[in-house]
Amino acid sequence: MKSTIETLSPTRVKLDVEVTFAELAPHIDAAYKKIAKSVNIPGFRKGHVPAAMIDQRVGRGSVLDEAINSALPEFYSLAARENNVVVIGRPEVDIKEFVDNEKLVFVVEVDVRPEVKLPDFSKIEITVDDVTIEDKDIDEQVDGLRARFGTLHTVERAAKDGDFVTIDLTARIDGAEVDGGKANEISYEVGSDRMIDGLDAALVGMAVEETKTFTTQLVGQKDDEKGDVEIVVKAVKERELPEADDAFAKLASEFDTIAELRADFVERLGRVKKMEQGAQARDLLLEKLLADLDIPVPDGIVEAEVNDHLDGEGRQEDADHRAEVDGQVRSSLKSDFLLDAIIKSEQVEITEMELTEYLVRTSQRYGMAPEQFAQELQKAGQIGQLVAEVSRAKALAVALERVKVADKSGNVINLEELRPKAPEAPEAE
Q1: Fewer CB near the terminus (10 Å): N or C of the chain?
Q2: Which of 409, 399, 405, 429 is CA-nearest to residue 418?
Q3: Rounded Cα distance, 142 and 127, in Å
Q4: CA-CA-CA-CA torsion for 30, 36, 38, 39, nearest 10 degrees?
Q5: 160 located within any domain
Q6: What average pLDDT score do residues 389-396 get?
Q7: Is 58 a residue whose pLDDT tops 70?
Q8: Secondary structure class of 210 (helix, strand, coil)
Q9: CA pair distance 317, 253, nearest whole angstrom
Q10: What was the pLDDT predicted at 426?
């Protein structure tokens, strides 16, 4: 087999491939065997029909068509490897010439992964926010702890933000009760915004036994289909918080004084905010690389993904939304190309432990057991996608290690110190 390559654009190439008849012969033999199993010719057992008889009854042209269709993916893939082409799209194949008992010549045009020229990461500087901890930040932490130890008391007044109410709720569409849309004796914190849009606003000012109906978007309904929600307040309770004093510190923590408790919150928040610095540095680095580097994307791939997305939403004719999705797809592809280039350049490999940790974290977000989540990914054929995500995340971390990171005050940030430390192995006795 002979092949040549022509670069049509940074993201598209043309392969000219010539295959000898000897190379095609195994596929022709396989085609005869396949057709022999599917035809019935008197005097011959199915699967044992001679090639000459197949040529006579079916036609050699049909055999050659079968052979060529079978052979094209193999020789196309071989040509791509020979020319170091990383294919990312569906190929367009055109048979240029076929001479029986001589040769097959075909042309392939296909989208390919662009070359990404990476910068010297050691010359890049990233500035992140300073770590600042204010009194109000500590107050919020203390108040959150106080809320855990608060007590509820029934009050004879209208509900306000922060109160706990007991309500009956009924959802209807066009006057008909929604399946599963009725619930009684629900305990809900006003202002928490944890249920239905509009519920918190409706509850404020309502008294016991008062009824109110509001219109909102119901879960599981179409975007343009609204429903009516009727609520009845059965009880209003006010939360009383304990005083933030030494007695509370002893009750709610291992500390003897409120000052010690607040100091502990300062230390904890400091660690959290330093971790946030690391996450900010990572995001800023990716943002900078995407802005500085010219990374082309195949228009055909973008158009296909955009159309698939809009088809799923039923919004093919929404020009504004199309433009929005187009931008998102292009940005995502550029990011993937960039991180894959870093993977290749830095020879990034992931361990089974890293993959498992990522799997566990992701499964928790979906409220699933890791084993179940892994099974669902396998069923959907998305294990490869998971591996790619972990690899790309590690590639960005590798690049970040070489970047100078400082806060706005000029303090250099040692990202290595922000990494969780592995437990030390016990010393042998």
Answers
A1: C
A2: 405
A3: 31
A4: 150
A5: yes
A6: 94
A7: yes
A8: coil
A9: 59
A10: 45
